[in-house]
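Can't paste images in this forum, so I'm doing it all in text. The chain is below; anyone willing to post the predicted structure tokens underneath?
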Amino acid sequence: MQTISVYSAHAAQARLQEQKIAEGSLVNVRIISSNGEGKYTGIVAGARVNLKSDSVLQNGDVFKAKISIKNNTIFLKPIQNNNSIENNNKIQLDNFPLKLVENEELFSFFSRLGLPADNVMLNIFQMMKQLKMKMNIPLFLKIHNLSVRFGEKQKSASEILMILQKKGIPVSVETILDLIGYLDGEEYWDKLEENSNKEGNKKKILNSLNGKNGGWYVFPFYIMENYVDYVADENIQKKERKIGEGNIRVLVNDSGKVEILNFSCFYKNAGNFASFLYDNGYLKTVRVNFQNKLEKKEEVILYLKSKLKKLYLQGKTKNKIEVQWANQNELSGFSCDNEKFYSINKRI
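Text version of the structure:
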């Protein structure tokens, strides 16, 4: 599910006091006036906004609420004083303009925080949002400085380091290199001889990662084929060999629901990638890239759309599923590229 983080534009000048509004976060709400017909003016996260409410609110009401975002509309779910039971009241922020924040604006934001304004830091912030981590300037700077040591593998390194940090797993630089090589399919492309140390490092970190609840899980797979080996004495031996490999990566949220499922497969001198994006546990978008189908991508999209439409008409999917062709670099990692940032476009 794609969530939206909102940064109050007027707070951007205040460096670390910038207020982030994200899916599932708690905010303070104060009602300052009633405008009739269920409409109110209030203060939310320090910004003066217009509200719509299904239930009656009173001037001076102060309460905590949980943020939920659907179709770029922000809703508030009031929480009772015990902070554990949610009311059924639904409050919509009316005329609350959201503006997509371009990378240049984010780079300016990084500079104001004293952080490097580059793509590595952008990846780190996207992973922060995806993993619902708290802003931690010293940690992000540490991960950035380590990631840039990996040269052209900076993006993969920053993603993996953020995931491991989220799960509290310490690893060596050598282990991260081995994991990046595996996830990017380098072992397959280079046809490297099996290295027991590399295999051991890879299995160790994957076992540690999958052994921690929540966040990302990574499951490797291999494509095998049987063949016949004729030995010198003309005896026939049936053997099997690896002809392809890949991995499935699954992002699970705190509620135990799948948010993203990424599929990477390296087979017959081609890479095949797919990313499945979920909303509240239901598949919403499928993004694909098949290297050996580049010239027929329109046909591939039409084929997938027809299959998914059939499932929808048969009632096997809850909603219509969008299908997109994407660049390989948007699918081969942990899809942090899907994370977008929005800002409050004006202060009322």
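Residues 116 and 145 are 9 Å apart (CA to CA). Residues 1-19, 82-87 have pLDDT under 50 and may be disordered.
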